[in-house]
User: What shape does this take?
Amino acid sequence: MLIAARFTAAFAALILSASAAAQTWPAKPVQVIVNVAPAGTADVTARLLAPRLAEALGQGVVVDNRGGGDGYVGIDAVVRAAPDGYTLLYAPGSRIMIAPHIVRRADLDPVKSLLPVAPTGRISLFLMAHPGVPGSDLAGLLQHARANPGKLNYGTGNPLSILSMAQLTGAAGLDMLHVPYKGEGPLNPDLVAGRIQSSFLSTGTAISLAKDGKLRALAVLLERRSALLPDVPTIDEAGVPQVTVRQWAGVFGPPKLPREIVARLNKEVNAAVNRPDVRERLQSYGYAAEGSTPERLFEINRDDLALWKRLVKEAGIPLE
Assistant: This one.
């Protein structure tokens, strides 16, 4: 009885201590780990949100890029961090949902280990084609590809573009050669030069190349058109509604992060995302800002995990 009483008292003290810590949070700067390389859309977005969050929280918010390992380097650092609200993850969904299907890590399940805090929106992907490809729209590209099986190719610079193109070619019944690249940086010059005919590109790059006339934008992977290229139809409008790949990004915490801290973070992230100046800047990157609840981010992850699993299998991407 004495041992049980001591255990109960110790447990209650631990709960009270955690609650008190959550109430005084934050008392020092917060580190936000971004599990992709610098200068990408997720990194730019995190750095745009950081000073707004710092202002709201009354403490510094430091962005720390830890790319590599298909996203696992950054994920691992956050999962193993103390659940005190001072180490968070900002990540695109593809770096959480795809990883379990292409890297064997029995010790770490990103979906089960990371605690959803707040979604921040979606990154637009545009299907781009070289101007020399016959046809002024997606229907024209598909018609040309079907008439010339095995003669056209497409490039990919990341897992998201691989799965997007795999879903497109599968849904449209196309026989095209896949040319993988180590990022959009080396892919873009070959697409502009016509050495590859098409690719899904992230918005910042796609918009500038389309506006310069160096590439032709055929469709955007969103439910509605992008305000930056309003004449470009959605993939559904363009006639291939089966392509459903999406790229969400959001804030996550380590397991057992106190719910009081999750609630505060969710509130401040949503407030930052909904600021007119932030939404305008995000839109200029082609980022569709959209905050919501932790539960909504969990639902997105759950649904996308099943989609990525199927697409990875269909694309024949080997497990490492």
About this structure: Residues 10-18 have pLDDT under 50 and may be disordered.
